[in-house]
Amino acid sequence: ARHLLYPAPPLFLSLRRMSSCLNAIAATTTAAYCLIRVTGRQSTSSHYQRQLATPPQSRTVQQRFQSSGSGVVAAMAAPAAESEATFVGRWSRRSEESINAVAYLQAHGLTPEKAAERAAAPYEQEWRRTPGSTEDGEFLILTDPGTGRGVRSLVYPLGDWEEPFAGKSELFGQEPGKVFRHTTWEEHPTWGHVHLTESVTPVGWETTQRHLEDGGMKMIMDRTYTPKMPDGSGGDKVSSSETFARIKVFKPMDQ
Questions:
Q1: How far apart are CA 72 and CA 13, in angstroms?
Q2: In sequence order, which residues have a C-beta less than 8 Å from that of residue 219 and are 6 or more positions away?
Q3: Taking the model in full, what pTM does it have?
């Protein structure tokens, strides 16, 4: 349970980049959210111009990170070409190896029964280099999360980006809106390249990091979620870890 006893340093670092959200939400619109970089520089995108209060847990998280004596060595704009290539392929979740996945889903509002069902459902992803893109480290990710809604396709660019959703989302809320994300690569002294995405959603703050193990045959996905409470503050943070195995021979998910 190494991922839960002391979550990976990028999880701590990521919370230093994220801000709180606005409490005032218009009746027919989605709240505006913001990501603050660890460097203190804000994005030029209009969606990231407001500097908002940091989540209430971030001070404690920063202290733990600074006192740990370990952490991310350096932030990277993009991985080496060979590192990018190792992420490309199809991956299948090994649900029996998941740690705290049910609690993670319950924290998003799922019932214990529904959370257990989702955590055990078949879940596959196919990672591809984004067609036509010249940016190393950018991926097109196809996902079948086992919800019965089919395969979804999403480009993960580097830097700030947005993901609109149509509502009725188990992770983002029932109303249509947007998730504000920031994706980068971090260099870890043990794992090497870590693919890190920080997100601000209508219901809270999330960080997802992925790294490879077992000679590139396993992808470990560590997630942390801080729910947004009714008063706009952050609730109790929940972490989970899931293991994905590489599928050596496969048919593309969109065929």
A1: 8
A2: 87, 91, 210, 211, 212, 213, 243, 244, 246
A3: 0.69
